[in-house]
Amino acid sequence: MLPSDLDPGRIPDHIACVMDGNGRWAEQRNLPRTEGHTAGEQSLFEVLDAADRLGVGWFTVYAFSTENWRRPVDEVQFLLRFNEEILLGRQQELHERDIRIRFIGRRDRRVPRRLVRRMDEAAALTRDNTGLTFTIAFNYGGRAELVDAVQRIVDGGVKRVTEKTIARHLYDPEMPDPDLVIRTSGEYRISNFLLWELAYSELVFSDVLWPDFGRENLYEAIKEYQDRDRRYGGVGGPAGASDASGSDPADTA
Ligand code: FPP
User: Fold this and answer.
1) CA 155 / ligand 1 centre spacing (Å)
2) DSSP string spanning 6-41?
């Protein structure tokens, strides 16, 4: 049921999440950091479920960043296996709920082939689903995404680059820009997440550590979003939104 203080007509279509604070949650309990990630899985699927029930169309999470390779080798190994196990353990349930799973990020040699296969399988299994699109940013960096886009544009011999050219070369050109980006754990940074896509997103920062973040916290973040006035550089209302991505007349190209 929709919480009474949320406006059903203004549920964000795309919510993206930086699930931060797993390590600190575990350290506060004298547990290994990896226990924090395990606890974070529960939060992730509670919040995904709540978003789905609210009618959110796109839900994106930062599962592993291009910078996360710098963590201790044990933690990196854990995170690789952890992601694989989540995919294996959850894909059927997500498929039955008509959720479409997609991935954004670099598929370089550091990503184990087996994990790449699992990602492809999960995406293939759910590709025709028409419910919420759950995008997992894995080995993802916003700068890397832009570098990869520019490289492909150069390789294609394009002479005139517009905003639309760049947008068409991102990892998932169909993914709409996030309306709301949530970062947990009291950190006020973007940390290389969706740099291009979040140009006009509303950012909501929560002090709650990710493993403690649940559906009520999601509702609070959406309430904060609904209380904001999105102007897209204009003077009011979302009318200017389309201009935000296509202000160059040549963008019609
Ligand atoms: C940040 O906490 C969290 C991560 C690096 C990983 C979170 C990943 C998941 C919950 C699983 C996602 C997997 C799939 C397949 C969707 P941190 O370790 O940076 O916490 P800290 O800032 O307290 O150290």
Assistant:
1) 34
2) S-GGG--SEEEEE---HHHHHHHTT--HHHHHHHHH
Contacts of residue 237, defined as CB under 8 A and 6 or more positions apart, other chains included, come to: 230, 231
Return the amino acid letter for 214: G
pLDDT at 1 > cutoff 90: no
**Helix, strand, coil shares of the chain as percentages rounded to 5?**
50, 15, 40
Which ranges constitute the DSSP H helices of the chain? 22-28, 33-54, 73-96, 113-126, 142-155, 163-168, 215-226, 241-246
Decide if 248 is catalytic.
Answer: no
Q: Which residues of 225-235 are buried (b: 16+ CB within 10 A; e: fewer)?
A: bbeeebebeee
Q: Which domains does the chain have, with CATH numbers?
A: 12-252 (3.40.1180.10)
Q: Residue 38 is encoded by which pair of tokens?
A: 């395990």
Mutate to test the pocket of ligand 1, among 17, 37, 59 (most ligand atoms within 8 A of CB): 37
Q: Whose CA is nearest to atom 15 of ligand 1?
A: 83
* 137, HSE (Cβ side, Cα atoms, 13 Å): 27
Query: What does the pLDDT look like over 156-184, one tens digit per residue?
Result: 999 999 999 999 999 999 999 999 999 99
